[in-house]
Specification:
alpha/beta; 6 strands; about 25% strand; 3 helices; about 25% helix; Beta Polymerase, domain 2
């Protein structure tokens, strides 16, 4: 009689700040990078990164929920170079703001007639608004709250 193998499947939701560390842990455990994908759910990006251990028959998925659509997302391609294709796809089809992709196609992976075709119209409007707000916030001449600015002084206290 053949052996029945029941692989362990886990899914863990993690904060975006922990993404690279968690991916690196899986790399050091010898796990294979299987896939990455994006979804737009309830006005947020849900990014999933999946890994498998062929010897242990386990399958792990890390999920990151990104509330701010303009938020920069670090690329995992520095750890798993093959992730470049998935990340280009996530950015091009959904508008995820993935930065520093190892092999960056600069929105030319696919020949598309429309921007972010997988994003619903409400998502496109929300993304456009978020990017405009982020650009305005970082633009030269924009207003800065004095409480956010540190001013160095010399020994005499003069500014």
């Amino acid at each position: 009689m053949s052996e029945v193998i029941n692989p362990a499947n886990t899914m863990e939701t993690i904060p975006l700040e922990d993404l690279l560390e968690e991916v690196l842990k899986r790399k050091h455990q010898g796990m294979r990078f299987d896939q990455a994908c994006a979804a737009f759910v309830d006005g947020k990006f849900e990014l999933s990164y999946s890994f498998s251990d062929d010897d242990a028959y386990s399958f792990d998925t890390l999920r990151v929920v990104v509330d701010d659509l303009a938020r920069q997302i670090p690329s995992v391609s520095v750890i798993y170079p093959c992730a470049s294709f998935y990340e280009n796809e996530m950015r091009e089809l959904f508008g995820c703001q993935i930065e520093m992709i190892g092999l960056d196609y600069k929105d030319r992976l696919y020949r598309l007639n429309v921007e972010t075709p997988m994003l619903p119209e409400a998502g496109k409007a929300a993304l456009k608004e978020a990017l405009a707000a982020a650009t305005e916030k970082s633009a030269p001449g924009s207003t800065v709250d004095a409480a956010d600015v540190e001013v160095e002084t010399d020994e005499g206290g003069a500014q």
